[in-house]
């Protein structure tokens, strides 16, 4: 019988499954897999956006996104330093290193996606939605992990909404379906239709 996943991976509390073996696989998949997935996708997306035209007008939303992503980066750095100083288990330390590097990628990608993409970032919204699901099940209910959870939730809220009201011409004439993004189709652009109904 395998030892509890929380013991092997280093102080992750909570479980994703009652089965110890399945729980270990799920924790590895979500905790490490999401960061690896972002770090593999981010360079490709950054390369695509780097030479693209600016599609948004000057707006405050971009400043809020910068503040949110930089705050998350600082929190992940603090978490990593705290883990090093307290000699955290290798599994927990590895996840914090990946989260720190991913937070840097998020800062760059969020900035480029906001200014040069007409839709919310699919890569970032899926990444943060997955992280929040994992954190809800695994993180401590207090302290730095809960602050990081709140910062991630804030970044997801900032990344998710459609940008129709801040798009330049001719992008401001695009249909709601073209500017909604992955989660926006369900959660944002249909709101006007539901209100009218």
Structural class: mainly alpha
Please count the helical segments: 9
Helix content: over 70%
Strand share of the residues?
under 5%
Rg result:
18 Å
Domain count? 1
List the helices and strands and how they pair.
Blueprint: H1 5-9, H2 20-50, H3 60-85, H4 90-116, H5 122-138, H6 144-159, H7 176-179, H8 181-187, H9 190-196
Helix pairs in contact: 2-4, 2-5, 3-4, 3-6, 5-6
Transmembrane segments: 24-42, 63-84, 90-111, 118-136
Keywords: Membrane, Transmembrane, Transmembrane helix
Keywords, separated by commas or semicolons:
globular, 0% strand, mainly alpha, 197 residues, disordered N terminus, single chain
Explain what this protein looks like in three dimensions:
With 197 residues, this protein is mostly helical. The protein has one domain (19-49, 59-196). The chain contains nine helices and no strands. The termini are far apart. The relative contact order is 0.14. Mean pLDDT is 81; it is low at 1-13.
